[in-house]
Design a protein that fits this description.
By secondary structure, this protein is an alpha/beta fold. It folds into two domains: 165 residues, D-Maltodextrin-Binding Protein, domain 2, CATH 3.40.190.10; 100 residues, Periplasmic binding protein-like II (D-Maltodextrin-Binding Protein, domain 2, 3-Layer(aba) Sandwich), CATH 3.40.190. 45% of the residues lie in helices and 20% in strands. It contains 13 helices and eleven strands. A six-stranded mixed β-sheet has the order 2-1-3-10-4-11, sandwiched between helices. The protein has a three-stranded antiparallel β-sheet with strand order 8-5-9.
Length: 323
């Protein structure tokens, strides 16, 4: 019997079996080898008002991977989305946060960065002091608004009474602008960019800068805290690095706006429909002062004491770890 075919068949079977065994080992070692995990990018949803006060915010967001910015015009809707948890960082008036916190919402303030953007515009004549308007109506957005708080404080600093020596009229900004243009309102308090939009309108004068008027009464201050960033407490607790990163980026953006306003405008022009000259003037009329950490509490509590609306002690309201 010829054994060579049998021996050859056995060799072939062993070779094939050996190859299969090597394949199994290779697949098993690949499956069990730990796969490096990619560092997850934290998605951050940021809402900021569609005004020139948000220029530093736009610049800051450009530096943060995974950040998504929405510029809003509907403040009530933005507040609701934030309280519902759909917005991580809400840029808004500090008074909005104070009001939310007073109603029990678990919100925290992580910074303040705008210290001046409001002006008193008058019709048919320019005034240099509040006494020039004694006995007249002054239009404000709503009763108890930050603009009314500051107006009352500045009026009293001149030895006048609020509202006794004046007639406060409460009207939304858009309505007040139309009344001013028609000459039906003689004095209206407005923020930027309304001021720059109205600057060259007939018979309208930019009379009093709230920032300058505040400095005369409180020369030790750099304006007063007006716009800042709010977070929900639970989100803040689980995202300390994101808060620190945002604060650092916003602080750098404020410095850029102050040192190179033309460059800042070039970087954000696509976000605004305002004419270039209006956007430029509006930026020049907006004062920025970034504050965070422990200093934030001092600045905000001092302001509310100055306007005679002291806050109850509430350290929870200030998020001081993300400096």
């Amino acid at each position: 019997m010829n054994k060579r075919p049998l021996i050859l068949m056995i060799i072939i079977i062993l070779v094939v079996a050996g190859c299969a065994w090597k394949l199994d080992v290779s697949e098993k070692s690949t499956a069990e080898r730990p796969t490096p995990l990619a560092t997850p990018v934290s998605k951050i949803t940021i809402y900021a008002p569609a005004s020139t006060s948000s220029i530093p915010v736009i610049l800051a967001v450009k530096k943060i991977e995974g950040a998504n910015l929405t510029l809003f015009t509907n403040h009530a809707q933005a507040n609701a989305l934030f309280l519902r948890g759909d917005v991580d960082l809400l840029i808004t008036g500090i008074s909005v946060g104070v009001d939310m916190r007073s109603k029990g919402a678990p919100v925290q303030l992580v910074n303040s960065y705008v210290s001046g953007l409001s002006y008193l515009l008058t019709y048919d004549r320019k005034v240099n002091q509040w006494a020039d308007l004694k006995g007249q109506a002054i239009y404000l957005p709503f009763q108890g608004s930050p603009l009314e708080e500051v107006t009352a404080h500045l009026v009293k600093a001149e030895g006048l009474e609020w509202p006794g020596d004046f007639q406060p009229v409460y009207s939304p900004f858009e309505s007040s602008v139309e009344l001013l243009k028609q000459g039906k309102a003689s004095a209206v308090a407005l923020p930027e960019p309304y001021v720059s939009l109205l600057e060259n309108q007939p018979h309208i004068f930019i009379s009093i800068s709230y920032f300058d008027a505040w400095q005369k009464v409180h020369p030790e201050d750099h304006g007063y805290p007006q716009v800042g960033t709010l977070v929900k407490a639970d989100w803040a607790q689980s995202h300390p690095d994101e808060i620190t990163q945002f604060n650092e980026a916003l602080a750098e953006a404020v410095k850029l706006v102050e040192s190179d306003p033309a460059g800042a405008l070039d970087a954000v022009r696509g976000y605004y429909s305002l004419p270039e000259d209006v956007l430029s003037r509006s930026l020049k009329r907006t004062q920025y002062s970034f504050v965070s950490g422990e200093a934030l509490k001092d600045v905000v509590t001092r302001y509310y004491a100055q306007v005679e609306k002291p806050l109850h002690e509430d350290s929870f309201f200030y998020h001081t770890s993300g400096q």
